[in-house]
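ARCHIVE CARD
CATEGORY: sequence design from structure
SOURCE FIELD: tokenized fold
FIELD CONTENT:
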């Protein structure tokens, strides 16, 4: 019995199509409510460090710090510190278990915190990343579950959070990378990358923001060596607040620049 081979373009486009259809579904819901929602427009700049340290054949340690700013760089948006332990099941599948600490500041015209205060978040997360290669294109899917303890103030006169509400969130990201020279991304190779990530809130404490946010990134990168990669480009972030203002849903429309410094260090190699 003869089996037809799948067209590589179809293999690439199928997950993208599913992702964009999912986004379009939620987007249609929000577009129908255009007249009843508030939009808060912000110019952001995210400056990020990512470091992976291989400590055994299948185990590595992930470190990350994201310096997120409003008005490109002049004001705080968020500070995010994240750690994790990776387990490489095979060359295409990686698991990660980790912790994140986040500080969110009262940026924009409509702050995320209703009292206009900064707040702390402690987060546990579990992640699966699946990678593949189709022709010269690197394709990855990232699935993440988060358990988020988000700080709240019971009264406006408090200077520190006195409650931490447990929220749950699911994230899915699809990313494509294409070399701009040759057929693969190797040392001294420039490349182009694009990704889309959707966030869905769930659980008994979720409020208005079942659709929590969506991010689209368009990047140009350069791989100097197996150890160092640099990326820079454009980021679009849409965030739905978990509360209403004057009985209207609030959406942040955040657009700006993103800069990533990626380090991959193998500590198992002998000097």
């Amino acid at each position: 019995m003869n089996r037809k081979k799948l067209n590589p373009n179809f293999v690439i486009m199928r997950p993208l199509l599913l992702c964009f259809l999912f986004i379009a579904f939620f987007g249609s819901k929000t577009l129908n409510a255009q007249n009843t929602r508030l939009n808060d427009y912000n110019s952001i700049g995210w400056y990020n460090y990512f470091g992976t340290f291989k400590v055994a054949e299948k185990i590595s340690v992930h470190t990350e710090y994201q310096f997120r700013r409003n008005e490109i760089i002049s004001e705080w948006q968020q500070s995010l510190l994240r750690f994790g332990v990776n387990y490489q099941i095979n060359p295409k599948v990686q698991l990660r278990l980790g912790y994140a600490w986040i500080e969110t500041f009262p940026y924009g015209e409509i702050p995320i915190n209703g009292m206009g205060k900064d707040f702390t978040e402690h987060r546990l997360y579990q992640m699966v990343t699946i990678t593949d290669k189709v022709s010269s294109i690197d394709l990855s899917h990232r699935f993440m579950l988060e358990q988020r303890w988000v700080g709240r103030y019971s009264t406006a006169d408090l200077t520190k959070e006195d409650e931490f509400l447990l929220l749950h969130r699911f994230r899915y990201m699809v990313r494509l990378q294409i070399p701009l020279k040759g057929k693969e991304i190797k040392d001294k190779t420039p490349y182009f990358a694009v990704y889309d990530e959707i966030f869905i809130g769930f659980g008994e404490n979720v409020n208005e923001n079942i659709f929590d946010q969506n991010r689209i990134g368009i990047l140009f990168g350069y791989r100097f060596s197996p150890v160092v990669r640099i990326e820079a480009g454009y980021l679009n972030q849409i965030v739905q607040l978990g509360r209403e203002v004057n009985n209207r849903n609030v959406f942040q429309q955040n657009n700006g620049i993103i800069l990533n410094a990626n380090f991959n260090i193998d500590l198992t190699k002998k000097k």
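CARD ANNOTATION: The longest strand covers residues 248-266. The chain has one domain: 8-266.
SHELF: design records, drawer C
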